[in-house]
Structures are given as structure tokens and as C-alpha cells.
Design goal:
The complex is a heterodimer of chains A (238) and B (430). Chain A is mainly beta and 238 residues long. Chain A folds into three domains: 1-30, no CATH class; 34-79, no CATH class; 91-237, Tumour Suppressor Smad4 (Sandwich), CATH 2.60.200.20. Chain A has helices at residues 91-103, 119-124, and strands spanning 3-4, 10-11, 51-52, 59-60, 111-117, 141-144, 149-153, 165-166, 179-185, 191-195, 202-204, 216-219, 224-227, 231-237. The N and C termini of chain A lie far apart (63 Å). By secondary structure, chain B is an alpha+beta fold. Chain B folds into three domains: 2-30 and 254-321, Immunoglobulin-like; 40-224, von Willebrand factor, type A domain (Rossmann fold); 331-414, Four Helix Bundle (Hemerythrin (Met), subunit A) (Up-down Bundle), CATH 1.20.120. Chain B is built from eleven helices and 20 strands. Chain B has helices at residues 56-71, 104-114, 125-137, 159-169, 186-195, 209-222, 322-325, 330-354, 357-373, 377-384, 405-414, and strands at 2-8, 12-14, 19-29, 40-47, 78-84, 88-92, 100-101, 143-150, 174-180, 200-203, 223-233, 239-247, 251-252, 258-261, 264-273, 276-285, 294-304, 307-319, 387-391, 396-399. The chains are: A mainly beta (238), B alpha+beta (430). Chains A and B meet through loops of A and strand 1, strand 17, strand 18 and helix 8 of B.
């Protein structure tokens, strides 16, 4: 059925105008709540998804590493470690509340993570295939550690990943994995860092090499985590 | 058999920009149903010019390989053998020059005939192709594939004779080409295979002919669909910068576009087998939009035997968020690198032949670096026969003093072969 595009062309295609290519509103393929969530910009397949997710049945691209709906890792078959909230209302708020409620009491004494872009670390990194410009002029920010398990990563609405320390927009660090690392507070009150199998690894200041994924590494007051292309996270007692 | 197409790109553009890149991955899955098999027509074109008798091992190996190949043809396959020198002759079935169906009798007759191939005369490849074309013409319903084996240069005719003939053969049949030894011209055979949607390769040792013939037949008989095209729509006011096959090997298709309508062109990709994947890199310049606009930059459809079966979209969204617009898509970056790798090798070898060692060192060094970084190990190995690598990370190399012509030709011939991005999250993020 022909439709009219914003520029006034009559188009046989209902998604994009077949004359000028303009997006036509109320496209059936527009982001619905679940399966057709727009893929991560520039990362995932844009169309032509092939096989259903073995866990939840949602369509998934052949090259996807994770199911965009339930978050299962196709390679390892593991579910995400943090709770994946239902996609309703404000997903970030939901995630925060869910994770926060369980451990509110234990997190009485104050710790913060100071997040900043570290030029020396950036320059010491092996230059990636694709040059990433250093984000000059961005100050440090403090993230209070309100729970006993702090996820460091980049937010993804479609995968239901809502890190406590979000290195996604606006101060994006593209070298950080969606689920990059976790800061966990032990029963004795001390902190450990655990890399979550991130692409580019996690380093702790003073340590020799990147952390082994899945292994606990103690982090003391003042210790620094180096992640992604330039991000330094300093653990501090407030 | 089912086809699917998937687009990989960064769709975000800064204000004022209009250059959009996308990598389209096309996969064919599922063997053809038995019984519903498509006819296959195969013509073997064997160089029997005088040089094939020098040394005799070449013609002997060619005889043996051709005989073994025809003996393996399954019943019902249409076939013929062309013996080529400065003129073409239908070695089998003979003067009437038509394809026959493989069966017990035709196979043994053909094999016996192969053993009597005599090396004599010059080399005029256009006559060989012309004879094959005439035979294929009678079988428009079949998947039509030729295999051309030569050991020398096309010296008995002008380059333009060959070019003209290739134009006439394009679309009639596909053709793989193999050069035996080191006296043939890589560019010449590449011209044939680029035009006729085939692959070029080197057979360094005549004893390798047998296996290569068999491998060709296996691939040919595995083809299930004869005519697959990429149909690319781009918006009004846009220009297709390039359309390139980027895996399994680099092949520029830009000039092969056939207009379907003013905004749409078809790019032929030839026959496909039951489980194949090929990747294409498309770049389009479209009129820039305003921040917040979303436009379709290309609609890429797969057209199989005339009917569209699957499509992938390359989009453009203009944003003032630099974090989005500067993001580089791993697939696009990878294949941009692989294309640069192929041209660095070819330019480096050219410079080396001209005696321009400075340029050769820079280009081949860059090639080593690109091949190393992208994990293209087989290309690294081929490069190591031409240069001494001091540091693959920085591309520091020294030209080797004594290089075997065969090694140089193998590198040149295989320079366009690419590797894929490993299917892990892209390096810049996950």
C-alpha cells in the first residue's frame, strides 16, 4: 500500500521512502518493547536476524554474542550475573532499585569511586585498530558505592545492562565492555575487583597485567582500576 | 536453499556528512533438494600450446589431471574439453563442439582422449573462451562453469582481443583460471576471472593440477543456484562510491552494476553453493540531512534467479553526539584494512619490479603490518618469502635479495584473499 513520506513522495516501501530514503513514521518495524529493540549503534546486525535465542526464543543475529532480550551469552550459555529488569517504565531506575534493596543495610559506611579520564593510561595503551580521540576537558565524577556489588560497564537498554558505574554516554569510553568488571564487597568489609571477561581487560594500579576474568583481586582504599581506553576508577573511603 | 543478508555499520553521521559505509554479510544455507538438482555444465579448457611440452612433465600432468577429472564427472553433468593454443579445438567430444552428458561411455572416451593431448602452437586465449561460449550458449538452464589452465602469456593476440571476448562471455559462463609454473601473467588471468566471476590461483608444481581440478569440480557440482545478484537501491541525489566483495576475497564490483531503474542497480555475483558466505562492503554518498533526521542510504536485496529473497538496510541518522558519530564499526574498519592490504601488496610488488626499493619497502611493510594485525596469517607467510620481517607491529621489513619468482607470483595471486573478523565483540567495546 503506497504511503507518503515526510518530503511528500509517494512510496511503495512503508519503512523508508523509495525516492529520497526518508524514514516514514509509524513503521511497523519501529522499536517495540522487546524483540525489535534497536541494536547497539554500529555494533550489532541491523537486520536479517536469523536464528531464535535458545533460551527465550527471541530472534537473534547469527553473529550476536548475547541475546538482546534475555541476555544469555550464546557462547558460554551463561545468563547475565546482574538481574535483568523487565523493560517497563524507566529501566535504569528499576535496575537500581532492584539491586539496591537487597543490600542497602550492609552498605552503611561510605565508599566512593572517582571516575576520570587518565591521559597517561590512554597514551600507554596499545593503539587500537581504530584511533579513539582522548576526551579532553572532562572532569572527574564521584559515584557513591551504595551496594555491595557494583557493576562497571556501559549501559545497554536493549540488553538490560544498567551498570552502577556507567561508562556509556555522555562520557563514553568505547573500550569498556558492556559488562566489564564488578567491584564486590566481602563480608569483612574489604573490596575485590572481578573482571567479567571484558574485551580489553581490567588492570589494578601496581598490578603486573590485566586481571584474570572471574578471579577476585583485592582493592584497597586509594587503589585504581584502569579500564577501557582511558578510564581510571579510584576507590576511596568517603 | 535459503539466503539471508545482514548489514553491519555505524549509522550515525555528524551534521553535514553524507558518506555512509556498510558491510553486508550474505549467507546461503541448506543443500539443494535431491532430485530438484539443477543441471550443471562444465567446460575444462586446457592449454596445449608448445610451452606445455617444456618440460614434458607439464603436459603429462595436465593429461593425467584432465583424464582423472572427467572420470569423476557424475552422470548427467554436461561437459566438454577445449584444448587451446593459438587456436581452440574441441578435444572432447570433438569437431561438432557441443556439450555431452557424462555417462560411462562418454567418460571413458574423454579420458582416453585426454591422454593424447599434444603440446603445439602459440597462445590465443580469446579463441578458447569463444569455443566454450558457443557450447555453453545451448544450455541456458544449467549452471555454467569453466576451468582454464594455462602456463604462459596470451602472446598470440592483442590484449584488446581478449578484453572484447571477455565482454561477450560475461553472463554466459563463469570461469576460474589457474596458472602453472611462473611464466604466466597474474594480471592477465585476474582480468579473466574478475570479468567472469571466477577465482585465479597459482599451481606452482604441475603435480598439483590433479588436486586442483578435483577441488574445482567439487565446488562446481556443489553450486545450487546459478544467478544471484545484489540489487542496491540508493536514494535520489546519491552516488554509489563503491560496491566490493570483501570476503572470501576482494573483488571490486562497482563497474559491474546494471541499472534496473534510475535509483537501483544489480550487481551479479554468479552461482552459489549450499553453504557459502560472502561479505560485501558498500559505500554511498547521500545528500546530508539535518541533525535528528533518519534516512535509508541503501536497500540491499538479494535477487536469486530473478526474485528478491532477502534484504538488509544501510541507514543514516544525523546526530550532534560525537560519541555516536565517531564510533567505528569493526566490520567496516576490518574490511577497509583488508582492501588496503591487497593494494599495498600489489603496489609493493610493482615498485619492486620497477626497482623502486623505497616504495616497495614501505608498501610491503605496511602490508605485513595490516596482515599481522588482522590475523591474516596465510598472507603473512606469503609476505615472509618476499621480505624479512623485523617487527610486524610497526611494519618494519627489509626486502629479501633473492626472491623466487614463484613466491612473488603466489603472493600477487593471493593478495586479494581476506580473513573475516572473528565473531567476538568488536575491539572498541563489547
Amino acid at each position: 500500500m503506497p504511503v507518503t513520506c515526510p518530503a511528500g513522495h509517494v512510496s511503495e516501501s512503508a519503512d523508508y521512502c523509495d525516492t529520497c530514503g526518508a524514514a516514514i513514521a509509524s513503521v511497523p518495524a519501529a522499536p517495540a518493547l522487546t524483540v525489535t529493540d534497536p541494536p547497539e549503534p554500529g555494533l550489532g546486525p541491523e537486520s536479517g536476524s536469523i536464528s531464535p535465542c535458545p533460551n527465550c526464543g527471541a530472534p537473534a543475529g547469527v553473529d550476536d554474542a548475547f541475546c538482546e532480550v534475555c541476555g544469555i551469552d550464546f557462547k558460554t550459555g551463561e545468563m547475565p550475573t546482574a538481574p535483568v529488569p523487565a523493560v517497563t517504565g524507566d529501566p535504569a531506575g528499576a535496575a537500581g532499585a532492584a539491586a539496591g534493596a537487597a543490600v542497602e543495610a550492609a552498605a552503611g559506611e561510605g565508599w566512593v569511586a572517582v571516575v576520570e579520564a587518565d591521559r597517561a593510561f590512554y597514551e600507554g595503551n596499545e593503539s587500537p585498530e581504530v584511533p579513539l580521540p582522548f576526551p579532553a576537558g572532562r572532569g572527574a565524577r564521584e559515584v557513591p558505592l551504595r551496594t555491595d556489588e557494583i557493576l562497571i560497564g556501559r549501559r545497554s537498554d536493549s540488553r538490560g545492562i544498567f551498570p552502577d558505574i556507567d561508562l556509556g554516554a555522555p562520557s563514553e569510553d568505547p573500550g569498556v565492555s558492556r559488562r566489564h568488571a564488578v567491584l564486590r564487597r566481602k563480608d569483612d568489609g574489604s573490596w575485590v575487583a572481578i573482571d567479567q571477561g571484558s574485551t580489553n581487560g581490567t588492570r589494578v594500579s601496581g598490578g603486573a597485567g590485566p586481571l584474570k576474568p572471574g578471579e577476585e583481586h583485592p582493592v584497597l582504599n586509594g587503589d585504581q582500576l584502569l579500564v577501557g581506553a582511558w578510564t581510571r576508577i579510584t576507590l576511596k573511603r568517603a | 536453499m535459503t539466503f539471508s543478508a545482514t548489514a553491519y555499520q555505524n549509522e550515525y553521521l555528524p551534521a553535514g556528512a553524507g558518506e555512509v559505509h556498510g558491510v553486508i554479510t550474505v549467507t546461503a544455507e541448506g543443500e539443494q533438494a535431491r532430485g530438484a538438482a539443477v543441471d550443471k555444465a562444465v567446460v575444462l579448457i586446457v592449454d596445449t600450446s608448445g610451452s606445455m611440452g617444456n618440460p614434458q612433465t607439464k603436459i603429462r600432468a595436465a593429461r593425467q589431471a584432465a583424464a582423472a577429472a572427467v572420470e569423476e564427472l557424475p552422470d548427467g553433468t554436461w561437459f566438454a574439453v577445449v584444448s587451446g593454443s593459438h587456436q581452440a579445438e574441441c578435444a572432447y567430444p570433438g569437431r561438432e563442439a557441443r556439450l555431452v552428458q557424462a555417462g560411462e561411455q562418454t567418460r571413458s572416451e574423454a579420458a582416453a582422449r585426454m591422454k593424447r593431448l599434444q603440446p603445439e602452437g602459440g597462445t590465443a586465449i580469446s579463441t578458447w573462451l569463444d569455443l566454450a561460449r558457443g557450447m555453453f550458449d545451448g544450455h541456458p538452464e544449467a549452471i555454467r562453469l569453466a576451468y582454464l589452465l594455462t602456463d604462459g602469456r596470451n602472446e598470440s593476440e592483442e590484449r584488446k582481443d581478449l578484453e572484447r571476448m571477455l565482454e561477450r562471455c560475461a553472463g554466459v559462463f563463469q570461469c576460474d583460471a589457474r596458472g602453472v609454473g611462473s611464466d604466466w601473467d597474474v594480471a592477465e588471468l585476474r582480468l579473466i576471472t574478475s570479468t567472469l566471476l571466477g577465482e585465479v590461483d597459482i599451481i606452482a608444481d604441475p603435480d598439483g593440477m590433479d588436486d586442483d581440478f578435483r577441488a574445482f569440480l567439487e565446488r562446481a557440482l556443489g553450486k545450487a543456484v546459478g544467478d544471484v545478484r545484489l540489487r542496491i537501491w540508493t536514494p535520489q541525489g546519491s552516488k554509489v562510491r563503491f560496491v566490493r566483495q570483501v570476503a572470501p576475497a576482494i573483488e571490486d564490483l562497482t563497474a559491474k552494476g546494471e541499472a534496473v531503474n534510475p535509483l537501483t542497480s544489480d550487481f551479479p555475483t554468479g552461482a552459489w553453493g549450499g553453504s557459502e558466505r560472502r561479505d560485501y562492503h558498500i559505500a554511498v554518498d547521500i545528500p546530508p540531512g539535518a541533525v535528528g533526521d533518519e534516512k535509508l542510504a541503501a536497500r540491499v536485496s538479494l535477487v536469486v534467479d530473478g526474485s528478491p529473497v532477502s534484504q538488509a538496510l544501510v541507514r543514516a541518522i544525523w546526530t550532534d553526539d560525537e560519541a555516536l558519530s565517531t564510533r567505528i564499526n569493526a566490520q567496516v574498519a576490518h574490511y577497509t584494512g583488508q582492501a588496503e592490504l591487497a593494494s599495498a601488496i600489489q603496489e609493493g610488488l610493482d615498485a619492486r619490479k620497477r626497482g623502486d626499493e623505497g616504495t616497495a619497502t614501505v608498501k610491503l611493510g605496511r602490508a605485513v603490518q595490516l596482515a599481522h594485525q588482522s590475523g591474516n596469517e596465510s598472507t603473512v607467510k606469503l609476505l615472509q618469502k618476499v621480505v624479512d620481517v623485523e617487527d610486524p607491529d610497526t611494519g618494519t621489513v627489509r626486502l629479501k635479495r633473492d626472491v623466487q619468482t614463484l613466491d612473488e607470483m603466489a603472493l600477487d595471486t593471493r593478495s586479494t584473499r581476506t580473513v573475516r573478523v572473528e565473531s567476538k565483540p568488536p575491539a572498541a567495546g563489547a
